[in-house]
Structure formats: C-alpha cells, structure tokens
Design goal:
heterodimer; A: about 260 residues; alpha+beta; Immunoglobulin-like; 2 domains; 6-stranded mixed β-sheet; 7 helices; 13 strands; about 35% helix; extended; B: about 300 residues; mainly alpha; two-stranded antiparallel sheet; 11 helices; 5 strands
C-alpha cells in the first residue's frame, strides 16, 4: 500500500514537471534604454543611445527602433521623349518615419523571410508593405527610389552584427550604442527587442523612446502654430531689424562708401 | 556647434547654415537677386523639410534685401518711385501667373512646360546679357553709364503718362515699367522664383536703367515681396522657422554688405557679365538635368525660391 502511494506521488511529480515543461514560454528579453527621453533644447545636437539587457541563452538578438507610420508626397519624374521632367505627384504611405535595426548576426541567419515580413522587420518587408498612390506603372522603381532617399538621410538602415552578446548560463547579456540621427523629428518612437532562434522570433519586448522639444524650441514651435499672425509679424520685424542693424554696423565699421 | 531648429524640428550645424546664407547674401548684394533658387535646394540637402526651407528662405531674404537695399539707398542706387511701380506690376503679374499655373496643371504636364520655360527664359536673358557685355568689354566701353545717357526707344516716348525717374535717370510712361514688371511677375510665378534674375536684366535693357540702380531698386521691391510671402507662409502653412531664418540672416546680411561693396567696385559691364554667367550656369544645369537620367525619380515637393 505504502509502495503504491509512493509510486503515485512520483508519477504525479513527473507528470506535473513534464506538463510545466511543455507550457513554459521562453522568457521575454529584458531591455534598458538610456536615455529614455531625448530632450531637444536650443543647443540639441543629437544624442548617444545605449540599449542593454538579457535574452534567453543561445538566442540571437535583433533590436529595431521604429517611428510612427507616415504619409509623404513627392514629385515624380518621368520621361517626355528625350526629356526628364516632373510627371506629377505620388503619395507614399504605410512606412515608418524612422527604421533603424541592429542585430547580433547577419539578419538572414537570425530570422526567416516569413518572420521578417510578419513584423515588417527589414528594408525588403518595408518595401513590400509600402503603399504608393496613385498606383503608377513603375511602382518597384518608385519604392526603390523612396528607400534610397530615406537611407541617404540615415533614417532607414539595418546595421548587422553590431549588437555585442555575452553568453551566460541561463541568459545572455547584450548591449549596443548608437548615435541618434540628428534629422529624426520629435515623435513617440519605440524600441523593439527580439530574441531569435532557428529563424523565428522566440520572444520580444518593447520600450517607448520619446523625443520631444523642450524650453525655447518648444515655446517657438508653439507660437508658430498657435499664434501664427503674431509670429508672422514677429518674423518680418526681426528680419527687417536684423537687416538694417547689420547694415548700420557694417556702415560704421567699413566707413562711408561714397556714391559714384 | 549644433543648434536645434524649432519649426523644422531638426538639429543642424550653426556655421554650415551661416556659410550658406553668406554665399547667397553676397550674390544678393552684388546682383540684386534673392538667391532663393540656390538656397532652398542647399537647405533641403542639409536635411531641412522642403516646405520649411522655402518659407524660412523667404524670411531671410527680407533681412538680406533690407540690408542690401539700405546699403544701396546710401549709395543713391534706389529709385523708390520706379521701385513702387515695379512692385505693383510684379504683384499683379504674380497673381495672373498663379492663375495660369492652375490652368496649366489642369491641362497636365505643367511641370514640363515650367522647366522648358525656365531654360528658354534663362538662356535668352543670360545669353543676350553675356554677349552684349562681352562686346562692350571688347570695345573697351567699361566706364559706368551716366544716368540718362541712353536714349529710350521712340515708340515708348510717345506713350501717355510720361514720368520722370530722377534716381534711375530715365523717363518712361508709367505703363512701361508696370507692364514689363507684370510680365516678369507672370514668368516668376510660372517658374516659381522671385524674378530677380529676369527683373534686373529687364530694368537694364528695356528700361535703360544703370546696372547699380537696377540692383538697388530690385532689392527694394524684393523686400516687400518677400515680407508678404513670409507672412502668408507663417499664417497659412506654419512653416517659417525664425531660428533658421535668423542664422541665414546673419550670414546673408554680412554677405550682402560685402556683395554691395564688391559690386560697387566693379563696373556695370563687369557686373552684367558676372550675372549673365551665373544665369547661364543655372540654365545649363537645368538643361542638363532635363536630358540626363536623374539619380532619383523622387524629390520632395517645394514651393520654389525667389
């Protein structure tokens, strides 16, 4: 009787261990971003960002900083006989305002094409999900040109092999530092951290990254928007006074110039 | 050293912006052209949003033209009476030009027609001015023309409402500068520029004004035109960045002063040939861009220069 009870207890323990093993989800990556808020004051000149944290042992790391989805209008050139000229406007939507990726290994080794497409996690997937209006004939060319334009501005890039990973027993530590692009406008960005294994996303974490105007720039931008008439008059007055002031100083410094 | 532009929403190198302003201001002071055709693309290349670049450019031209016009005023190179008529004519022409553009756009391929107009007008004006000045230099006629030394064509002298413009040293019917400037205003609106490039040669060759007075008078009318544009951009589109404009102003007003002084040291024909060379260079660049496959099919939409 005692043996049977012991056997039952052992079986129960084995079963519960096995079940817990099946239901256990991989631990989500941890992430710390510094600074959490980028404050754009009058002398803001960009910022250095550092992201660090832990991912489950044996997994690769892919970090993505994304901006909000935007819609932009462009002039599109077309050919008229031998001449190139603007042939109307195209509106491009369904793309993030900023996309910067950092990976611990070549992206093709970390994630499958399906996984990249599902999360819009690389340039190719952004290109595929981009909406071009009107649907012009040379859509692939328009898409390519758009991506090149953004890439040249430094706000669309994937930096492969730039995340340093230190393997541990149960988890691996990772870290990456990068310069925040000066041309990135104030907005609510988000940092996505992916732990990857066998071509798929094992687990993910998300952190907000706020970029906002403070102090003088915030006040000026607010005035330009909310008190436009006053701001317009101020612009003309300041410009006129600056011009006349510099003319006055120049005439004093340079002496009188006689007319012909 | 970086500075943050509140309306553009980006950070930019202080000296880079001031340097760009100085180059354009130098041209403004020397030739009486606004330089927006040059500055707006430079600002866009620096990463400033196109709408903010074009609007802030207008604001800085207010300062540059105030400074340049003041310098020319002291040198007695501004004919206020003639400048006022030119301004009214230019504004009326601009309004007509905007209507024409609307019709052209409705017809399709308006941008193609605009570019071709640009090349033809710049080529004709620049080419004529270049060869005329070259011939004058070859003949050794480099001395500046005295006011009123040139006779105006007989037909124009028979028009009603003759008016004397003492500073410019010319006499014209009030309709002549008005209608000529109206045509320039129409062309300027179609081409999306302020018109300095066309206005100065038009004053020299058709109104027979001395080059220095044409430059001073053009700066006088540019001041009012750009003040109006700045106000409209600020109230309608909220795209004037005063910090950006101030930085450009510092560079451009200093450049305009230097330009006005260098211009004064040069003779009329030398100034003309320099301006003609720049006009022709812009024309060649535009003509080249018409036939060569562009590096990118897409470009940011902008409101044009001055």
């Amino acid at each position: 009787m005692k043996r049977a009870r012991t056997a039952s207890l052992v079986a129960l323990a084995v079963l519960s261990f096995a079940l817990s093993g099946f239901s256990q989800e991989p631990a989500a990556p941890t992430a710390r971003i510094s600074p959490e808020v980028i404050r754009m004051d009058a002398f803001y000149g960009g910022a250095q960002i550092r992201v660090e944290g832990e991912v489950p042992a044996g997994s690769g790391v892919y970090l993505v900083v994304k901006g909000p989805q935007i819609e932009e209008s462009f002039n599109k050139k077309g050919r008229f006989g031998p001449i190139w000229a603007n042939a109307g406007k195209v509106r491009i939507a369904g793309v993030p305002a900023l996309f910067i990726g950092f990976s611990s290994a070549p992206l093709a080794d970390l994630l499958s094409r399906e996984a990249l497409e599902a999360g819009q996690l690389d340039v190719t997937s952004i290109q595929a999900q981009m909406k071009v209006d009107p649907p012009v004939m040379d859509q692939p060319l328009v898409r390519e040109n758009y991506l090149k334009l953004k890439s040249d501005q430094g706000i669309l890039q994937v930096n492969e092999g730039t995340v340093a990973v230190t393997p541990g027993e149960n988890s691996s530590r990772y870290a990456v530092s990068f310069a925040w692009p000066k041309v990135a406008p104030p907005a609510d960005y988000r940092l996505e951290v992916y732990a990857c294994r066998d071509g798929r996303v094992l687990s993910r974490a998300e952190l907000p990254l706020k970029v906002l105007k403070v102090g003088f720039p915030e006040k000026m931008a607010g005035m330009a928007k909310d008190r436009a008439v006053l701001y317009g008059i101020l612009c003309i007055l300041v410009a006129t006074l600056a011009g006349l002031g510099i003319d006055f100083i120049a005439s004093r410094l340079g002496g009188k110039v006689s007319a012909h | 050293m970086s500075i943050f532009l509140p309306v553009a929403g980006i950070s930019i190198n202080l000296f880079l912006v001031m340097g760009a302003g100085a180059i354009v201001g130098f041209m403004s002071g020397m030739f009486g052209v606004g330089g927006g055709f040059l500055l707006t693309p430079i600002l866009i290349m620096m990463g400033i949003p196109p709408t903010v670049a074009a609007a802030s450019d207008s604001c800085q031209i207010v300062a540059a033209s105030a400074s340049g016009a003041a310098a020319h005023f002291r040198l007695k190179n501004v004919d206020v009476k003639l400048g006022s008529i030119l301004l009214i004519g230019g504004l009326v022409g601009g309004a007509i030009g905007v209507r024409i553009i609307k019709v052209l756009r409705a017809m399709g391929n308006a941008d193609f027609l605009i570019t071709v107009t640009y090349v033809v007008v710049l080529g004709s004006v620049g080419g004529y001015m270049f060869f005329e000045s070259l011939n004058a230099l070859r003949r050794g006629g480099m001395a500046p023309k005295k006011s009123g030394a040139v006779k105006k064509p007989g037909l124009l002298s028979r028009l009603p409402f003759q008016m004397n413009f003492p500073t410019a040293g010319v006499q014209h019917s009030v309709f002549v500068p008005f209608f000529l400037c109206m045509v320039v205003g129409i062309l300027a609106a179609i081409m999306g520029v302020g018109g300095g490039f066309i206005m100065v040669p038009m004053m020299v060759y058709l109104l027979r004004m001395p080059m220095h007075v044409a430059v001073g008078t053009d700066l006088f009318q540019i001041f009012f035109t750009c003040a109006g544009v700045t106000f409209m951009q600020a109230t309608t589109n909220h795209t004037v960045d005063l910090v950006l404009a101030l930085l450009l102003m510092i560079g451009s007003t200093i450049g305009a002063q230097i330009g006005a002084r260098v211009g004064k040291r040069l003779r009329g024909d030398q100034l003309k040939i320099l301006l003609a060379s720049i006009v022709l260079l812009v024309m060649v660049k535009m003509a080249f861009s018409l036939v060569v496959t562009p590096a990118s099919l897409l470009s940011y939409a902008t409101g044009g220069g001055h």
